[in-house]
Amino acid sequence: MHYGIGCYMALDAILTVIAIWVGLGVAALGAPRNTRFVAHGLFPVSAVLSLALVVLALHGVTATPEARVLVLGLPGLPMHFRIDSLSASFLALIGAVSAGTSVFSAGYVRPGEGTAPGLQCLQYHLFLAAMALVVLADDAYSFMLAWETMALSSYFLVIANHRAAAIRRAGYLYLLLAHVGAIAILLCFGILQANTGDFTFANLRVQTLPPLWGSLAFLLALFGFGAKAGIVPLHVWLPEAHPAAPSPVSALMSGVMLKTAVYGLLRVTLDLLHLQVWWWGVLLLVLGLVTALYGVVFTTVQTDMKRLLAYSSIENVGLIFVGLGLALMFRAYEMPALAALALTAALLHTAAHALFKSLLFLATGTVLHATGERNLGKLGGLIRAMPWVAWLALVGALAASGLPPLAGFVSEWLLLQTFLLTTHLPASFLNMLVPLVAAAVALVAALGAYAMVKFFGVIFLGQPREQKLQQANDASTLERIGLAWLAALCVGLGLAPILAIDVIDRVTRLLIGFGLGPTVHANGWLVLAPVSLQRASYSPLVFAFAVGVGTVFALLIVHIVYHARARRAPAWDCGFGLRNARMQDTSEGFGQPIRQIFEPLFRMRRELPSPFDSRPRYRVVVEDHFWYWIYKPVQTAVERAASLAGRLQQGRIAIYLAYSFATLVVMLLLMGR
Questions:
Q1: What are the residues whose beta carbons fall under 8 Å from the beta carbon of 509, sequence distance 6 or more?
Q2: C-beta of residue 224 within 8 angstroms of C-beta of residue 144
Q3: What is the chain's percent helix, strand, coil content, to nearest 5?
Q4: Residue 303: DSSP 8-state
Q5: Angle 247-253-259 (CA atoms, 0-180°, nearest 5)?
Q6: Closest Cα partner for 387 from 269, 316, 483?
Q7: Neighbours of 553 (CB within 10 A)
Q8: CA distances (Å), 471 to each of 364, 370, 385, 455, in order?
Q9: H or E element at residue 108
Q10: Alpha-carbon gap, residue 268 to 191, rounded angstroms
Q11: 11-30 tens-digit pLDDT
């Protein structure tokens, strides 16, 4: 096999980085309770390796795809690895997010928080290595081995504080759905190899499946990767596992691990499968829209800051799936330009969500360490005690709101442009469906911004709702560096989306055969025009400059005109002087309008006070219908089956011999027939 020198060296170097990651985890076991060695010694080295991975992966995007075979694992089953533009782009994302998370973890790790720091370090680096190997794997055996390692290592990270029963339950639910999804992915690979016995991706690419088997493989892939991504109704693990996990782990799971599912679905549907079936795209489109709407509505009513971010991840995964669905549909109808635009929007939103959601989860980690609170009803006013965290979290919240000129805006704008440019689809009902989906996506974007206003406003603005919040400490230096790195990437991706589109262009050309690169560059680096200047354009730098000038002008006007005549006086209290922080708008009050409008989507339990209560309390618990419609009946059925099976175990040898004798008689009768 021939290897290009540059790519061969890059692939070797990437595998070396992964091996060193594992080595760092093993080294931590030498001093598992030495927090200083683990935090200040190993995690900074891990961050440097992540930066090296970014550089190597960006080189792999432009290099010729090459492969490597390692004689590891079972006899006759060597491990195949391959780097192309698709795998390299996701590797760069893994490296960029893990660099900030590792630096943050160096200041975040503390003794006495569940699992020993050294063991957490091993699990953390196995998790990173497994995610990188997932996107490099070039055969089903290597892919599934890396996929299961990723699931197991992240499971142990989720249950780091395993003494709490709720955390153990959340970890079990996550592991259960992860393995059910893995079975579906394994069955998908079994169909793709078409009875050849060769599970390398090179062989899977050349197989031609009939429409029935191809569609079955697609549905299995959608179920398996959808369970990991958190699409409705396979999302129930996500709002349980994310709050249970330590914040750096939540950042990696939401920012990166969910994206490995996006990678897997892209690899199967647009690379390994050759069929062009229009309804695959429509199914993805509908599922993505339902997931986005469901996720954002639940985001607005959450009272736990980490659960809020978890449901926000469900919303953003839904938007990514909407883009993927459009790309599949346009590809099936041989509309490559629109397919490339939709896929570009989906991949750009994948990168943007990875950055701003990791930033927000890390920010909640510092808040949790400083206050000991996750409940939004007990937070408030932290911008005074934690200004670094507040301002950096504001960058993430604005990006998550889809506001220009930050990362989240460009991807959502391109997605909406895809809808606006869609014309003359062969099926008439699709021409009616597309405008409705576009309106729903706009609604999702608006509600997402509403949820981020609630998140930032309730936590950081106003007055502290608890006395202890006034003594909260700001983030440490290492934590600030990690947060600032991710915030800078959010700003950079928003101001220079053309650079990201250059990388994505290589991916769309690999998967679809068409890219936006020439069109975008034809209009210069200052203006982003996905089709032409006459249709739509956006200039992030000009917009940022205008916002900056307007802000400075407004500040000067306020300073010159108003401050000269300003006087300080107590705020008007409407004649009621007993004002305190409890009178501020609460998290529940912020979400009440959405809860009333979308009430059928929620399963609500209300706890009403009695007129005779000395300390009356009103409480509303919002729950997920899908848990009671799907998962609770399955749980009940399994428990009943286990109870019936348990009755067979009487503990008496005579009963067991009778079972054996009856089985033997039945087998003889069947053989006699």
A1: 85, 515
A2: no
A3: 70, 5, 25
A4: -
A5: 150
A6: 483
A7: 10
A8: 17, 8, 7, 21
A9: helix 85-108
A10: 12
A11: 899 999 999 999 999 999 98
* Nearest-angstrom CA–CA distance, 662 and 644: 19
User: Dihedral sign, CA of 413, 417, 510, 278?
Assistant: positive
Cβ contact 234:227 at 8 Å: yes
Contact of 80 with 137, CB cutoff 8 Å = yes
Instruction: Give 109-127 pLDDT, tens digit per residue.
Output: 887 677 888 999 999 999 9
Q: What is the dihedral of CA 146, 147, 150, 151, to 10 degrees?
A: -150
Q: Checking phi first, is residue 230 left (phi over 0); if not, alpha (psi -120 to 50) or beta?
A: left
Residue 568, classified by CB atoms within 10 Å of its CB into exposed (0-12), middle (13-18) or buried (19+), is exposed
359 in helix, strand or coil?
helix
Separation between Cα atoms, residue 218 and residue 268, nearest integer Å: 8
Q: Is the overall model pTM greater than 0.70, yes or no?
A: yes
Distance in angstroms (rounded) separating the CA atoms of residues 625 and 290:
14
Written in H, E and C, the secondary structure of 469-516 is HHHCCCCCHHHHHHHHHHHHHHHHHHHCHHHHHHHHHHHHHHHCCCCC
The token pair at 483 is: 């947060």
pLDDT, tens only, 301-325: 998 899 999 999 999 999 999 999 9
> Are 431 and 425 contacting, i.e. CB atoms less than 8 angstroms apart?
yes
- Tokens standing for residue 522: 């034809």
d(CA 436, CA 442): 10
| 59/56 Cα distance (integer angstroms) | 5
The tokens describing 599, both together, are 């009430």
Q: Contact, 342 vs 279, CB < 8 A?
A: no
**Matching residue, tokens 């500040």:** 555
Are the C-beta atoms of residues 246 and 288 closer than 8 Å to each other? no
| Bridge partner list, 139 | 200
Tell me the three state secondary structure of residue 19: helix
Q: What would the DSSP string read from start to end of 505-559?
A: HHHHHHHTS--SHHHHHHT-SS-B-SS-TTT--B-HHHHHHHHHHHHHHHHHHII
Which 8-state DSSP code applies to residue 600?
Answer: G
Strand ranges inside 84-138, DSSP E? none
Question: Residue 166 corresponds to which tokens in the numbers above?
Answer: 């709720």
User: Phi and psi (nearest 5°) for 223?
Assistant: -65, -45
**What tokens does 457 get?**
């406003």
